[in-house]
Amino acid sequence: MNFNEEIRIFFNELDRKYYLFKSAENLFNNSSNISTYIFPINHLAIITIPLSYFSVCNRDFNSISLSHALFEYSVQIHKDKHCRVVYLYEDLWMSKMEMIKDRIKMHLGFGKSVFARNCECKRINSTLAKSFLKETHVYGFARARYHFGLFIKKDRSVLTKDRLVLGSKNENSKLGLLVAVASFSAPRKMTIDRGGIKSYEWVRYASSQGIRVVGGMGKVMMSFVRLLRPNNIKILKSLESFEIMSYADCEWSNGNVYRKLGFQEISIKDPVSFNVDSEFNRCPINKNDNALLNKSYDSNIIISNLGSIKFIKSF
Length: 315
Hints:
The protein is of the alpha+beta class. The protein folds into 2 domains: 3-110 and 265-313, no CATH class; 112-240, no CATH class. Helices cover 29% and strands 31% of the residues. Strand 8 and strand 9 form a beta hairpin.
């Protein structure tokens, strides 16, 4: 069974109407079996990208050029169909299938909602953050200085048996069920032309599979801000300015969640190329290594993601 057959079986199991728009055979005139699935009620388009699409780089194009073609195609889909666009790469489907299925289902309106007002936000250690993110984030855990967890308050009615089934296995007995984790980096001092401001990167955010925490990102962000700028500081001029920087993955997001939180779009980060091995593991490739970018080696395939959008919010 090939990639697109597995996708269609999965979509058919969902209680959502969809139709196959067309294959993107116009991309470099190759029959790469890229398919576009439209979910009209959800205003969502899912573009599936098999590894065979990137195998064309062995002949005429490198993986970066192929990614740019994908982006231009998605812009046209968004314009013609008036819907959000997400991309589904075959290697992630094969290596992170359950996470990817859950993420697609959340885009289609499945899952349970927990309101952030019914949660407590507390700092957690890296061990708890790591075990949670390994189970819930496509890219897993990343080293960071600060980790926060959202725990359902035990005295709230949302803590039902159904929620417990859907929640994370990582549970703190004093605080209740852990449903989301966020990680922030240590500060990096910017250059003089940026005023020497301290910049913190928002490295990770993920919620438990099957759970959507409404207002969760805003709550963890403000908890982090209060940590850096305690309320008991009385002299306003003593407050040091800082910023939070983060990236929206263009495969899954247009960045609106950051815009709603008051972040400003700063720039577009170029696609990153990866070497994908026979077990569907990704290894980043140096962008200056043209020899690798223009061909596959051994039994591996060189692919590129779609880049990301850089956002910054100043405080």
